[in-house]
Amino acid sequence: MKSYFGRRYMLSASHRLHSDVLSAEENRTAYGKCNNPHGHGHNYVVEVLVGGPVDRETGMVVNLIDLDEVVCTRVLDRFDHTNLNLDLLFDHCVPTTENLCRKVFELLKDAMPAGELEYVRVEETENNFFEYYGERAK
Amino acid sequence: MIFLTRRATFSASHFYWNESWTAEKNDQVFGRCANRNGHGHNYTLEVTVAGEPDPVTGFVVDLKWLKDVIEREVLSAYDHRHLNLEAPEFAKLIPTTENIAISAWKRLESAIVAAGGARLTCVRIYETPEIFAEYRGEA
């Protein structure tokens, strides 16, 4: 029987929204305060949903200890307390939360200890959040 | 199509144990959850139904009715209970968050189908604010 297991993690990071293909003025117009050259930071919540059959022996879609290990190694260790703009993944990619959400999905999609990654949701603040389900539509 | 979600909370105790395994394997796989004295959580249950708003009332379903269904079918069986010992479905089924979501769905489905109108689309159970499971009725 297919079910879904979800887990929420927190990471704190800084970023600056600035596009190389826009002029300084266009960047200020597009990104406003987020274009501040010194950057700013957020406490991001990363929510991971894993779908799959419920294992008959364990009653689990995925063991959360194993999921924590993957998410910590691949995502939290990489991004927590860092400047996202300096990560290679954002070399030519503006670290908006939309793009962070996609990058986190890509980092995790082939590494699930069991089941399949259904979506990654990243909450930038309590009022802004983004979800990515991979290339397929929801 | 409108999706409507009603949230409810219940508090219950449980433990994880597979009778066909050794004590060592249970400890290894389930860790602290294998303590057979049990432990507890404040669970949050989210029940989502989908349908078209009624042209007269504007409701997909009457929220008071849905509240009463959740209370009667789920909370009366789970709230302030030891799930392994008091909810019959967990006599032989480990009350993981995944299995609680599936079992709550089974408890709710017939009452919601019988009422006609909206259909049940998702049951989500939060064990803590950071851990949750959901079931969408898939095989």
Which properties best describe this structure?
heterodimer; A: 138 residues; alpha+beta; Tetrahydropterin Synthase, Chain A; five-stranded mixed beta sheet; 5 strands; elongated; B: 139 residues
Report what the structure shows.
- The complex is a heterodimer of chains A (138) and B (139).
- Chain A has 138 residues and is α+β, with helices and mostly antiparallel strands.
- Chain A has a single domain (2-132), classed as 2-Layer Sandwich (Tetrahydropterin Synthase, Chain A), CATH 3.30.479.10.
- Chain A is 26% helix and 30% strand.
- Chain A has a five-stranded mixed β-sheet.
- The longest helix of chain A is centred in the middle third of the chain and has 16 residues, at 64-79.
- By secondary structure, chain B is of the alpha+beta class.
- Chain B has one domain: Tetrahydropterin Synthase, Chain A.
- In chain B, 34% of the residues lie in helices and 31% in strands.
- The longest helix of chain B is centred in the last third of the chain and has 19 residues, at 97-115.
- The chains are: A alpha+beta (138), B alpha+beta (139).
- The interface between A and B is medium-sized, with 19 and 27 residues.
The level 1 CATH classification of chain A is Alpha Beta
The largest pleated sheet of chain B is described as: 5 strands, mixed
The fraction of residues in strands of chain B falls at 25-35%
Query: What are the low-pLDDT stretches of chain B, counting only 5+ consecutive residues below 50?
Result: none
Radius of gyration of chain A: 17 Å
* Average pLDDT metric of chain B: 96
| N-to-C series of helices and strands of chain B | EHEHEHHEE
| Tally of DSSP helical segments of chain B | 4
- Residue share in helices of chain B? 25-40%
User: What strand line-up does the widest sheet of chain A have?
Assistant: 3-1-2-4-5
Largest two-chain interface: A-B, 19 and 27 residues
How many distinct beta strands of chain A? 5
Poorly predicted spans of chain A:
none
Q: Whole-number radius of gyration of chain B?
A: 17 Å
CATH superfamily of chain B: 6-pyruvoyl tetrahydropterin synthase/QueD
Structural class of chain A: alpha+beta
CATH architecture of chain A: 2-Layer Sandwich
